[in-house]
C-alpha cells in the first residue's frame, strides 16, 4: 500500500511540473485550470491492475470472428462497460467470411511421401499451446482445390518478384508457388500467383526474416520457432470491408433494411488453394529443390542454396477445402455522453477478434480500453464528465479484412462526417514498451503533448522523452493499411491516429498467448496503465477543448514535403516535368492562412475572447477541414478510397501512400494523369484554405 501511495505522489509531482510548462491547445485561459485538474484526476484514477484482469479474462481462449468464443468476449466487454456506466450498443452485421480453416494438407509426393506439419508444437513451458481449440495454420478467403504439382520459389511473392521470374524464363503455370512472408500483404502474393497461372500457393515465414537468424526463438526468445505459423486473411478486393457490400453496411439479412449484396463469384475472390506453413515444414521442400540458384537478395535463412524450381522429381500436394458463407459479427460500442457537446464525438477503438488467443494482437489494446472505460466512468459518476461524447468501440472481423469497423463507418457515414472529431486506433496497443504513433497532420501535436504528461515506467523520464530519444521531437509516421482507421480516415475523412506501445511479436501464431505476454511483452504489466494515461489525456483534451485542437499549420508543412517528394519521383522518369504548379501555388496560400489560424486561435483563447456561441460555429467549421481531401471520384485503383491525402498501398496492402492519386501514376511511371491530379489537388488545397479563412473571419 505504501509503495502504491509513493507511486501516486510521484505521478502527481511529475504531472504538476510538466503541466505548468504545457500549452493546452484549444483551451481558453479561464478553462485551463479546470482541464489540468480533470487530467490530474484521470491519471490518479487509473488502476494499473485492471489491464491485467481484463487481458486474462478475454485472452484465455482462442476467439476467431464468427465463433461462440468470440461472442463470449463480446458479452464480457459489453458487461464491463455497462458496469462502468457507459451506454452500450451492439451493432450486428452479416458478413461473407471464411468459416474456419476447413480441411487442408501439405505433403511431399515425390521423391518420398511425407506429410508436413501445419500446426505449432505443444510446448511444456507454455500451457496455452496445448489448448484443444487452437486451429492449424490457415489463410481466410483461400480458394478450394486439391493439386499435386512441381514447385517454384517466388521470394516474397511481390509484383516485382513474379516479373523477375518471367524475365528469367521460369514457367509458373500449373506449378505450386512457394513464397515467404514479407514485402507485401499476403493477399497480393495469392493475387499475383493466380494471375501468373499458379495452381496453388504455400506461404512460409523464413528464419532470415523472423526466425533464428534474428535471435533466440520461442520459447527461449521472441523469434519464430520452426513450427510457428503466421495466419491471416487473403482478401484483396478494390475496397475495404465486407466483400459483398462495397459502400453499404452489411446489415443483418433478417433485419428491416435490405442491403443489396454482390454474388461471391462477381467479386474476384481467389480461386487457387493457399495455406501457410512453418519454416520447419518449408525446409523439407526447399532442401529438395534442384533448379538454378536464386538471384541476389532471394536467399533466405534455411541451410540450403535456395533455388528457383524444384524440378520434375519433386512434387508437392496442396489441398484446401474451405467453406465460406454469411456469418454474423458484432461491433460493441460504448458511449460516455458529453456534458455540453454530446453530438461531437471522440472515438477510440480496437478490434477484438483474433486468430488465436490474441494476447498482444489485438487484445492488449482491448484490455487497455476496457480499463479506460472504467476510469472515465468513475470520473463521470463523480460529476467529472467530458464536454464532448467519448466513444469506445470494439470491432469484430478485423482480421478477415478490417470489416467490422468499415461496416459501422458505412452505416454511420453521414453522422460521422458531421460529428466525429477524431478516431484513435489502438490495435495491439500494449504489446511491448516501445511507444509510437502514426497520425493525421492535425493530430500529431496533441499526441506528443499528451505524452509529455505521463511518466514512463521504471524511468525518471516522461513517455515523450523516451519516445523522442535523442531527437528534438519523436518521429510520427503516416497512416497506412492493415487496421481499423482505414474507413474513418480514407473513406470519410475523420482525422485519425494509430499506435501505442509495441514490442516483440509472434504475429498471428498460436503462441500469441498469456505465457508469451508475461514472459516477453511486458512482464511488469506497467505499460497498460501508461498507455491508458497517454491516450486518455489525448482523448480528454479533444473532448474538453473549447476549440477542437487541430494543428492547421501541419497541413501545409507536411504537404510541402510530400509534394517535393512526388515531384522528385516524377522527375526520376520524366526529366522535363515542370512540377505540380497549381498545387504548389495553392500550398503557399494555405501556409499563410493555416499559420495565421494557429496563431490567432491561440491568442484569442489566451485572452478569453471567444464566446460560447461563436466557439460552436468555429468547431463546426473545424470538423469540415479534413473533408477537403475527400473526393467522391476517389482513386483509380479503387473509388472507395476517397481521400486525396492518404490511402493504403494498393500493391502491398500495408504501406502508407501519401498523395495516392499521384503515387499511383509514379508507380507505373506514367505522366498521363499528372495534370488532372494537379488540378484535383490544387482544388482540395484551395477548399481547405477557404475553410480556414472562414474560421479566421469568425475570430
Question: How are the secondary structure elements laid out?
Answer:
Layout: H1 2-20, H2 32-45, H3 48-58, H4 68-83, E1 87-98, E2 103-110, E3 114-115, E4 139-140, E5 145-149, E6 151-153, H5 159-167, E7 176-180, H6 186-195, E8 200-204, H7 207-210, E9 232-233, H8 264-267, E10 274-277, H9 279-286, E11 315-321, E12 324-336, E13 341-351, H10 363-381, E14 388-395, H11 404-411, H12 413-419, E15 420-425, E16 434-439, H13 444-451, H14 463-468, H15 486-492, E17 496-502, H16 514-521, H17 527-544, H18 553-571, H19 581-606, H20 612-623, E18 646-648, E19 656-658, H21 660-667, H22 674-698
Helix pairs in contact: 1-2, 2-17, 3-10, 3-17, 4-10, 10-17, 11-15, 13-17, 18-19, 19-22, 20-22
Keywords:
16% strand; 4-stranded antiparallel sheet; 699 residues; 22 helices; alpha/beta; M28 family peptidase
3D architecture notes:
Helix content is 38%, strand content 16%. The strands form five sheets. It has a seven-stranded mixed sheet with strand order 1-12-14-13-15-17-16, sandwiched between helices. The protein is of the alpha/beta class and 699 residues long. The N terminus is likely disordered. Keywords: Coiled coil, Signal.
Are there runs of 5+ residues with pLDDT below 50, and where?
1-21
Shape: globular
Number of strands: 19
**Approximate helicity band:** 25-40%
For the largest beta-sheet, the strand count, sense and barrel status come to:
7 strands, mixed
Q: Give the terminus-to-terminus CA distance.
A: 51 Å
Number of helices: 22
Strand coverage percent: 15-25%
Mean residue pLDDT: 95
The class by helix and strand makeup works out as: alpha/beta
> What is the radius of gyration computed over CA atoms, rounded to a whole number of angstroms?
26 Å
Give the neighbour order of strands across the main sheet. 1-12-14-13-15-17-16
Query: Which oligomerization state do the chains in this entry correspond to?
Result: single chain
Signal peptide: 1-21
InterPro entries: PA_dom_sf, PA_domain, Peptidase_M28, Peptidase_M28B, TFR-like_dimer_dom, TFR-like_dimer_dom_sf
Domain Transferrin receptor-like dimerisation: 580-689
Domain Peptidase M28: 331-514
Amino acid at each position: 500500500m505504501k509503495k502504491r501511495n509513493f507511486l501516486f505522489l510521484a505521478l502527481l509531482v511529475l504531472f504538476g511540473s510538466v503541466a505548468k510548462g504545457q500549452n493546452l491547445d484549444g483551451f481558453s485561459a479561464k478553462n485551463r485550470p479546470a482541464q489540468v485538474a480533470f487530467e490530474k484526476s484521470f491519471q490518479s484514477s487509473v488502476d494499473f491492475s485492471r489491464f491485467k484482469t481484463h487481458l486474462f479474462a478475454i485472452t484465455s481462449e482462442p476467439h476467431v470472428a464468427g465463433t461462440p468464443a468470440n461472442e463470449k468476449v463480446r458479452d464480457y466487454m459489453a458487461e464491463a462497460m455497462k458496469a462502468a456506466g457507459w451506454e452500450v450498443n451492439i451493432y450486428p452485421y452479416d458478413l461473407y467470411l471464411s468459416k474456419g480453416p476447413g480441411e487442408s494438407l501439405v505433403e511431399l509426393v515425390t521423391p518420398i511421401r511425407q506429410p508436413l506439419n501445419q500446426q505449432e508444437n505443444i510446448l511444456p513451458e507454455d500451457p496455452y499451446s496445448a489448448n484443444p481449440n487452437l486451429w492449424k495454420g490457415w489463410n481466410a478467403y483461400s480458394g478450394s482445390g486439391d493439386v499435386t504439382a512441381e514447385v517454384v520459389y517466388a521470394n516474397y511473392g511481390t509484383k516485382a518478384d513474379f516479373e523477375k521470374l518471367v524475365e528469367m524464363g521460369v514457367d509458373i503455370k500449373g506449378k505450386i508457388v512457394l513464397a515467404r512472408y514479407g514485402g507485401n500483404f499476403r493477399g497480393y502474393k495469392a493475387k499475383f500467383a493466380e494471375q501468373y497461372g499458379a495452381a496453388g500457393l504455400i506461404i512460409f515465414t523464413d528464419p532470415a526474416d523472423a526466425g533464428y537468424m534474428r535471435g533466440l526463438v520461442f520459447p527461449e526468445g521472441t523469434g519464430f520457432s520452426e513450427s510457428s505459423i503466421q495466419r491471416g486473411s487473403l482478401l484483396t478486393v478494390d475496397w475495404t470491408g465486407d466483400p459483398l457490400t462495397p459502400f453499404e453496411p452489411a446489415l443483418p439479412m433478417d433485419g428491416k433494411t435490405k442491403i443489396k449484396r454482390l454474388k461471391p463469384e462477381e467479386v474476384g475472390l481467389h480461386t487457387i488453394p493457399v495455406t501457410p506453413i512453418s519454416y520447419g515444414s518449408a525446409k523439407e521442400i526447399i532442401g529438395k529443390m534442384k533448379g538454378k540458384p536464386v538471384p541476389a537478395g532471394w536467399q533466405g535463412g534455411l541451410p540450403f542454396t535456395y533455388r528457383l524450381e524444384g524440378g520434375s522429381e519433386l512434387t508437392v500436394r496442396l489441398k484446401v477445402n474451405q467453406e465460406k458463407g454469411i456469418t454474423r459479427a458484432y461491433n460493441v460500442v460504448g458511449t460516455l455522453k458529453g456534458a455540453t457537446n454530446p453530438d461531437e464525438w471522440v472515438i477510440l477503438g480496437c478490434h477484438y477478434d483474433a486468430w488465436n488467443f490474441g494476447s498482444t494482437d489485438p487484445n492488449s489494446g482491448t484490455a487497455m480500453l476496457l480499463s479506460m472505460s472504467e476510469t472515465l466512468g468513475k470520473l463521470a459518476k463523480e460529476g467529472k464528465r467530458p464536454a464532448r461524447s467519448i466513444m469506445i468501440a470494439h470491432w469484430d472481423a478485423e482480421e478477415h479484412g478490417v470489416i467490422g469497423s468499415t461496416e459501422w463507418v458505412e452505416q454511420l457515414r453521414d453522422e460521422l462526417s458531421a460529428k466525429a472529431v477524431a478516431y484513435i486506433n489502438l490495435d495491439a496497443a500494449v504489446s511491448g514498451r516501445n511507444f509510437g504513433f502514426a497520425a493525421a497532420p492535425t493530430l500529431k501535436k496533441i499526441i506528443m503533448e499528451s505524452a509529455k504528461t505521463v511518466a514512463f515506467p521504471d524511468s525518471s523520464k516522461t513517455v515523450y522523452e523516451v519516445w523522442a530519444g535523442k531527437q528534438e521531437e519523436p518521429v510520427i509516421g503516416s497512416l497506412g493499411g492493415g487496421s481499423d482507421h482505414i474507413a474513418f480516415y480514407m473513406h470519410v475523412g475523420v482525422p485519425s491516429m494509430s499506435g501505442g506501445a509495441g514490442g516483440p511479436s509472434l504475429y498471428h501464431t498460436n503462441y500469441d498467448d498469456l505465457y508469451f505476454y508475461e514472459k516477453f511483452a511486458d512482464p511488469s504489466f506497467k505499460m497498460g496503465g501508461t498507455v491508458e494515461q497517454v491516450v486518455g489525456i489525448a482523448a480528454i483534451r479533444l473532448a474538453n477543448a473549447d476549440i477542437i485542437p487541430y494543428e492547421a499549420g501541419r497541413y501545409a508543412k507536411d504537404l510541402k514535403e510530400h509534394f517535393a517528394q512526388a515531384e522528385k519521383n516524377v522527375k526520376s522518369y520524366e526529366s522535363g516535368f515542370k512540377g505540380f504548379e497549381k498545387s504548389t501555388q495553392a500550398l503557399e496560400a494555405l501556409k499563410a492562412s493555416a499559420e495565421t489560424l494557429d496563431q490567432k486561435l491561440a491568442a484569442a483563447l489566451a485572452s478569453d475572447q471567444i464566446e460560447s456561441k461563436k466557439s460552436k460555429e468555429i468547431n463546426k467549421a473545424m470538423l469540415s477541414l479534413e473533408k477537403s481531401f475527400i473526393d467522391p471520384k476517389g482513386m483509380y485503383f479503387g473509388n472507395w478510397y476517397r481521400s486525396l491525402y492518404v490511402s493504403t498501398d494498393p500493391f502491398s496492402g500495408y504501406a502508407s501512400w501519401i498523395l495516392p492519386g499521384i503515387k499511383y501514376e509514379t508507380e507505373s511511371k506514367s505522366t498521363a494523369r499528372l495534370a488532372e491530379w494537379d488540378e484535383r489537388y490544387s482544388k482540395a488545397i484551395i477548399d481547405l484554405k477557404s475553410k480556414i479563412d472562414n474560421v479566421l473571419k469568425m475570430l
